[in-house]
Request: fold
Amino acid sequence: MSTTNNNSSTLGSYVDSAKALASNALSSVTGNPADQRQAENYQESSDAKYENSQEFAKAGPVNVSGSGAATVDDPNRTQGQWDQTIGNAKSAVGGLVGSQDLQAQGQQQTQLGQGQEAEGQYNDYTSGVGNRVKGTLGAAGASVLGNEDSQQAYQNQRDVGKTQQRSVESDISSQVDAQRNANNNNY
Reply:
């Protein structure tokens, strides 16, 4: 595996964290400063791997993870977001001009957009899970066989899956935060 992939491993961060705990326990028994430094090094490695595994950037429908894998959102997500924007605008204009019909049309378009976006999120998330599982199992098999090229290809597939999942998680987190803020403003 490449260094980048090791650095972006959430599992690797947990392994290093466990090593840090064990080294810390050993240093408290032995009083050896070298064991304490070893524990600190493992913990720093764990923190760096975890932070890198969570890195994610989103620009419109394009997503890039800390591993460098890039994906594009399912078209239903993008179209659903657009329909929600237009629906909210129609609803607002309908409210301003006193057109209940336009307001109702806007609310309906917003609801349809929410459903379409959720469908796209579901598609991306399940595809991401599938890519992560196939990539992880394939990389393990390729490693056993000593096929480095195949191992890297499977690792890339796993990274794409992780990026797909992080993208959906990011959108859902933003939606929850927006709803929480809207609820707080209503009080």
Remarks:
- The chain has six helices and three strands.
- Helices lie at 3-7, 10-30, 33-54, 75-97, 100-145, 148-185.
- The first strand starts at residue 56 and ends at 59.
- The chain has one domain: 3-179.
